[in-house]
Sequence to fold (130 residues):
Amino acid sequence: MPPSALERALEDGLTPGDWYALLNDFVFFWLDESRMERQRHACGDRPQVLLTFDAPTLLEKYGTDAFVSPINSGNARRKPARRGLSTLMPYGTWLANGWPAGTRHRLPAELLFRSAIPVQAPYLVEMRDV
Fold:
């Protein structure tokens, strides 16, 4: 994410360095297979491993560390979405209230955890080369 592109999309007085530091505190998961496929294709011919996790089991154990984002928070190219301190919303808050604009029907683009996630059963369901 180039700082010059990111800078135009930031709110709340954040700098690109602030945004990078914020994102580096999280583990990210795609919730939508088509978004995951776009990301995978963006990586070109580099080998990839797809890890599939059981989201309900993760949320049961690590839900207090779970957040959601309405956007791909790690991408600021081509018309970057605005982002700021409220972009990464606690999962429980989103369940109770929806997004700040009051839209409950829009699903999150990302599920994030501010904790380490074990790459093992019962959380990890599948691991395969893609």
Q: What stands out?
A: Residues 86 and 100 are 8 Å apart (CA to CA).
